[in-house]
Every structure is written in structure tokens, then in C-alpha cells.
Amino acid sequence: MSIRTVVVDDEALARSRLRKFLLQEPGVEIIGECANGPEAIALVGSQATDLLFLDVQMPEVSGFDVLTALPPERVPLVIFVTAHDQHAISAFEVRALDYLLKPFTQARLQEAVRRARRQLESQATAEAHAKLMDLLKAPPSGGVPLSRIAVKNGPQTLFVRLEDLDFIEAAANYSVLHARGGNHVLRETLTSLENRLPPSRFLRISRSTIVSLDRVKAIQAGPKGEHLVLLQDGRQLVMTRGIQEAQKRLQYPGVATII
């Protein structure tokens, strides 16, 4: 079967590289290329498309914006293309078929195309499409909810679940994730990461620390008048901000708040 494919990326070199790889894939028909979100909406909205290679981060109209703007019946299988690890999480959350992390290899593209071909040939296409549409029709406030954090580790990308996090520390332009099973260094500032974390589960307690509320056992006064956050495992974190917010959000059984 022929896979009618559209390539969307605001970088000409990226489109050229993807086109070169796709032309080597039997059965893949490139029916169009787009340099921005509006072009993609117009093309995919008017042409029957089986597979969409979609850049995530584009000026003004992002890849996620493209999907929400398309008529539901026009949304094809989606493979996100991104230069940033954190977008991989959002791609999984909206049930994208796959994501390609730039720069990707021909072998990695072949794997993604094989997945697309299997999906198109199976009865699961309709179900996957329906799930994607349900999520896109009712996006939560602030975008797709984060459930895992992607951490680049050499040739691998590790996915750290939010429920495994104890706390996060700033380290210049990096963040150190203290989690069950070990620590992980993420190339992202603490402020940027804070904006992606669900506020119902995480609280910034100082300039350099974000804590998982699920790990907090008590908040207590320190010997020098400071406040300390006591974790379930006995570790203590210095608290310099968010004290009143913590009082409100930690009023549930199992947490002793001593201020």
C-alpha cells in the first residue's frame, strides 16, 4: 500500500534530510512539504494524508497547534520530529505513533515508517485515532500534562516517572532529579522545569529546590529560625519560599505540618 505522507518542518535542511530518507522507503509517497503550521493546516486539511511527520517547535503555530486546528476526520497518523527531549513526553501523551529526536538516522526513520505501515494495515488505526482526538478536543489547562521527564543519557533517553521523584535541585543551567533508583542530570533550568510540572504535585520551596508533595512528611522550624521540609526517608530540605502555600496544600492525612 502507498503511504501518503506530508513533511512539516520550519527548517529547510531538516525537510531536505527527511525527504532524502523517505525517498528510500518503498511505498512512501510524499504528497507535500510545509515550512510552517498554517501551511500544514491548509495542506493536510484539504488532502487525504496517511502519515504526518510534524516538527514540534515552530514559530507562532506549533506542531501541537496544528493537530488541534485540523478537522478530526483529517488528522492522520503522526510522527513528531523534535530537537528537544522534553517534547517526547508530550508526543507520547497525545498518543503520537512515534517521535524522532534530531538528528536521527536512516535506521531510526525506517523503524518509524515500519510502525506506521503496521498501524495503517491493522484494525487498531481507528481506535488510536479516536484516542488522539479525545485528548486533542479537551486539552488540559497549560497544555499536555507531564507524566514523565525525558533525560538524555549518552545514546539513550531515560524516562523518569513523576511519581518516582523525591525532589529536584538546580545546578546552574541544569537540574538534578533526585529519584528512586538514583539521580539524573537534566539539561534544563529549574524554572523551565517548574513550569512543566503539575503544581498539584510539586512545590518550589527555595530558589534551588522543588519538592514532590507526595514525599513530604513534615514541615518544621529549624534551630536558626529557618523552615525545614522533612521527607519520608528522613532527608531535610531548607525552605525559603512557599510556606503559606505549603500549609494549604499539605492539609491531608499523613502529613504533619509544624510551623
What does this structure look like?
The strands form 4 sheets. Strands 2-1-3-4-5 form a 5-stranded parallel sheet, with helices on both faces. With 259 residues, the protein is α/β, with parallel strands linked by helices. The model is unreliable at 137-143 (pLDDT under 50). A hairpin with a 5-residue loop joins strand 13 and strand 14. It folds into 2 domains: 3-137, Rossmann fold (3-Layer(aba) Sandwich); 149-257, OB fold (Dihydrolipoamide Acetyltransferase, E2P) (Beta Barrel). It contains 8 helices and 16 strands. The radius of gyration is 22 Å and the shape is elongated. It has helices at 12-22, 37-46, 63-69, 86-93, 106-121, 124-137, 190-196, 243-249, and strands at residues 3-8, 28-34, 51-55, 77-82, 98-101, 148-153, 156-161, 165-171, 174-179, 182-186, 202-206, 209-212, 216-221, 227-231, 236-239, 256-257. Helix 2 (37-46) runs parallel beside helix 3 (63-69). It starts with a strand and ends with a strand. Helices cover 31% and strands 32% of the residues.
Please outline what is shown here:
The chain is an alpha/beta fold.
As a percent range, the share of helical residues equals 25-40%
Please provide the ordered H/E string of secondary-structure elements: EHEHEHEHEHHEEEEEHEEEEEHE
Number of helices: 8
| Overall pLDDT confidence | 83
**What share of residues are in beta strands?**
25-35%
Q: Rough shape?
A: elongated
User: What is the structural class?
Assistant: alpha/beta
| Largest beta-sheet details | 5 strands, parallel
Strand order of the largest sheet: 2-1-3-4-5
Number of domains: 2
- Named at the architecture level, the CATH assignment of the largest domain is 3-Layer(aba) Sandwich
What is the CATH C level class of the largest domain, in words?
Alpha Beta
CATH topology of the largest domain: Rossmann fold
